[in-house]
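During the no-cost extension, the postdoctoral fellow (Dr. R.K.) reprocessed legacy sequence entries with the updated structure-token encoder. One reprocessed record is reproduced below for audit purposes.
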Amino acid sequence: MNIGDNILKVRATIPQGVELVAVSKFHPNEAIMEAYEVGQRVFGESRATELKTKASSLPADIQWHFIGHLQTNKVRMIMPYVSLIQSVDSERLLRLINAEAARIDKVVDLLLQVYVAQEETKFGFSPEELVKLVESGALNELSNVRVIGVMGMATNTDDEARIVADFNAIHQTYQRARLLMQNNEVFSQISMGMSDDYALAIKAGSTMVRIGSTIFGNRQY
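Re-encoded structure tokens follow.
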């Protein structure tokens, strides 16, 4: 499997203005470096310990995105290394990230995770909860985070109509929140779409796709 070739093939299918996050979780440093050699700089990890270990040993110009469910006791571990936390799924986590970022004098970018999928296993704010949070003005009190958009996942199904409906619901939530954001030129990102469904996500307005297996092959646990 040629990871560099895979990156170039995926890039050829992604329009300008959509960012490719190469999901490197469970894959070794050597695989990440193959992607790095063809110019990939943005990588997604879902485990705090793994992100810290990789970030400590790989080139400093890599931008690390945390894309998994973030436990509150792991926030401090990733804070020095992470450039974007995509999976902020509660107000408690949001406030803790702000406090930890302030502790090390850093401003960190975040996406609010919106939950629309018809599955119990996914995390996030419901569309109504997310809109209420923005409307409340609570985000304006947090000086060490920049909320730059939303992230979401479609239901894990072969039903294309369901997937498209989920992506449209995420996009609509983003639009509702953006109208309420005081600083809405910063609030400009929608992260949705993975290896199997990113073409549909882009059609629905995604600005950031998270692609793992198409680039790296199946996960090496």
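The first strand starts at residue 19 and ends at 23. Strands lie at 19-23, 42-45, 63-66, 82-88, 108-114, 145-152, 189-191, 208-211. The remaining legacy entries will be reprocessed before the final report is submitted.
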